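assembly run, all chains below
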Amino acid sequence: MTKHFYINLQKELKNHIFDYLLLFTAGIFFLILLNIFRGQRTIEFFVLVSFAFFYIIWGVYHHIVNETLHLKTVVEYILIAFIIIFLLKIIILP
Amino acid sequence: MEKIKTFIHHLFIPHEENNFRAKSLHTDFLTVYVVIAFLMMMVFKQGNIHDVLGFATDISVEKLYQLTNEQRQKNNLTTLSLNPSLTLAAKRKAENMFQENYWSHYSPDGKTPWDFILGAGYKYEYAGENLAKNFLFSNGVVDAWMNSPTHRDNLLKKEYTEVGYAIVNGVLNGEQTTLVVQEFGKPMVAGEATKNIPVVPNKPMIEKNTEQIVVQKAVAPKVNFLNFSFNLNLIFMSFLILALVLDFYFASKFNVIRIGGKNTAHLLFIVFVLIGLFMSTIGTII
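ok done. output:
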């Protein structure tokens, strides 16, 4: 199982190296900002929301570049982002 | 049994009947998750279940006391007993930090931890203080103290025999904050009262550049709701990760080409958020 997973994961990352590097860099920035503003709950939540919105924009950009943009795809990114925002709001900003 | 198998297959494995996309990742299912997450958020907010002010903490005196003594036992030291005067000193110290707007071992007008301890009627031979803020769980507080050499020395000082705690929630510039004060002490024995003391206590740690305005309120929550919601979050995210991994694997294996979001990106996003979730449980100590 792992062989299939890794081969295809590598293939996906290699084919879109710039896009994934961009998302990865944003993720690192997200963690750095969380660390800087650790304990400041409103700012932590704002950082999370910003990362979630970046992720939606990243999804739209990625699919535009690959000419695979579809309304269903955009909705999928939005839904996943909002699931995460709502879940983490319980912890960060009750 | 067969029905359950079919359902799980339909839920996680992309095949013809679910349009070659795990049903658990279909837009309608994702919408249901959003609604569930939103309702959970509202229930937790409206229910005000974290505590009376709605602070997200799961720190209790009992747990801090237990964990502190466990650490001392591990290091072959005597356990500490809870002292009401030290508890009062910790409470007053926290109150003073709110009133005078500081986050330090020393108040802006020069009050030391020893002033609070003596002021609470505790005459000490040795005394010390550890502070922490914005942790979510008791074990996070004690772990952070144990990972800091100066706080560790305080926590494992063999001279101490008693301890007192205050856990106080409040607001700093609109920010909800939980403050933990831990006061250590060894009472002066009666015969030594004529020795013209206080003996110089161990030196507390100072942080200069932190602003803190807190309104005092509340003690630890009665029920472990934060732990519950934290675990619920982990279960929810683990479920999503499992669905994404299985869908990605089987779609690759069967060479399925379909319209939809990238599982790799979703996974990366959720993993970063999970790391962030764990980071948010860690506060600061001085």
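Residues 50-54, 193-223 of chain B have pLDDT under 50 and may be disordered.

The radius of gyration of chain B is 25 Å.

not gonna interpret more than that til we talk
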